[in-house]
Please model this.
Amino acid sequence: MKRSIRFAAAATLAVALAGCASAPQQTAHPRDPIEGFNRGVHAFNKGLDKVVLTPVAKGYNVLPPVVRKSVGNFFANLGDVMIGINNLLQGKGAAGVSDFMRFAFNSTFGMLGFVDVATPAGLEKHNEDFGQTFGKWGVGSGAYVVLPFFGPSTVRDAVGLAGDLYTDPIRLASPEAARWQLGGGRVVSRRSEFLDVQDIVDAAGKDEYAVVRDFYLNRRDAQVSDSGVSLSNEE
Model:
C-alpha cells in the first residue's frame, strides 16, 4: 500500500514537472495571493530539509527494510485514530468504524501496530484529516499558504491542522520527552519514504515552488471530493 502511494506521488509529480518544463511559468496564481511570502517560507523549509531532515532520513534508510516498515506501520496505526474521527465527522460511518477496528486489531494482534494485520484482514487504510472534513462541510480552501516546518497548506487546512494535532495520540505520551521522540521519529520515518520523490523534483531543475503548490492544491481538491488525484489546474 505505502509503496503504491509513493509510486503514484512520484509518477504524478513527474508528469507535473514535464508540463512545467514546456509551459511558461505562472506569474500570478488565483489561489496564491501571498506568493512572495510563501516562496520565502518554502525556501526556509527546503533549507531546513536539506541540512537536517534529508541527512537524517538517509541515515535512517540504512536500517533493514523490515525495521523501517515496522516503524512506519506503528505510526500509521496511531494515525487511524484521527482518520476514524474524521470519517465519522464526514458522515462515513462504515469507514470510521473500520478505522477504529484497524486500530484495535493492529494494536493487539499486530503488536502495538508494528505489524499490519488489519489490511490483509480486509480493513482498508483510509486517509482523512480535519482539513478534508472542513471541506466536506462546505468550507472553502482559502488562500494557499506555506507553513514554517509543516510545508504546503491552505487557510482551511492550517486551521484543520490544529484539530489534527489535538487528536494526535502522541499527545498522550508521557513524559514530555517521549512525545518529542515519537513526533521526531514519525517525521523522519515519513521523510524517508519520499526521498525518491524529492529526487525527481530536484532533477527537474524547474520552478519547484510552483510544482509543489499546484500538486498540493490539486491533490487536496481531489481528496475533499473523493475523486482521486487530479492534475488539472482548474478549481
Notes: The radius of gyration is 18 Å. Strands lie at 144-147, 151-154.
